[in-house]
# Entry
Amino acid sequence: MAGERQGRRYPQNLQGVLQLAVEAGSAAEGQEPTALEPMSEERKAWLREALSDICKGQMDEVEQMKRCLEHLRAEEPNDQEREDEEEEDDRETAFETLTELCDNLDNARDLMTLGGLELCVSRYLSHEQSGLRWRAAELVASCSQNMPQVQLYLLDIGTLPRLLQMTDCDSNPTVRVKALYAVSCLVREQEAGLKAFLSLDGFSVLMRGMQSENEKLRIKSAFLLLNLLTSHPEHRATVVSMGMVQQLVSVLRTPHSPFHEHVLGALCCLVEDCPQGLRDCRDPALGLDELLKQRSTELQGKEEWEEELDFCERLRTLCFIGQQSEDNGMDR
# Structure
């Protein structure tokens, strides 16, 4: 491998860059690379400008972020200025621009370095304007998604407790949904985030989310619960000890909703390799067997509910079909 690197010729000029690109393209298409004629001055100028534009584009985005932060760092408008709401609109636009720019992971890291995330967490997650609160939460989610360095930074500055509190208690339904989205980005596939989530009783926040009147919050809470139980089976016993089985079954008794699919999936997780979860589901006082029979009948033949039906029948098999066979064997 070292000899291969030493023998490799790296381009030393614009002509070499173009040659390397052509050779790579030819190899991908299974063609023999062709020799290039000397590059004209006009072509050199074009390629130099193209490469410059690439570098300049990244620098322009950093400048855009700096301008957005200037708006967000400005003093709060007084009562008179609030009447026309122009200042608030400027800040909302700044957040929307930053969120779009931070889809690029390099920009998310740069925003952290510029102090933008600290500002977002310290001032705007608790801002009196709900439009700024939910946009701040959305920016946190955008920056932390698939970015361990940013995730750890946000955890270190105390972002997760704020987000869980917003998910649980905020008066604005959009804020609660965006806050939970940010929670998800900090705890999924992030060991330190999950540890903090557990210490902050995050599973109880998800349970209350599933019991809320906010349909989007119910769906996202159930989905995150299912994801965490699937990815981290070692925490199933802890969740069962919280009385989660009984609460999930009570959720299933509410009027039918798309998020019930995730609730049934979570129950399946809680009975697999978890004896206490299985015993809880089999408790006659819950009436789960009859509930599953009824739900299966309602879902039969409806293609849009096919996955929920699969979970329903799987849960009934795990909890009750095998139990009936065991009981019959004992009778004999």
The two ends are 69 Å apart (CA to CA). DSSP finds 20 helices and no strands in the chain.
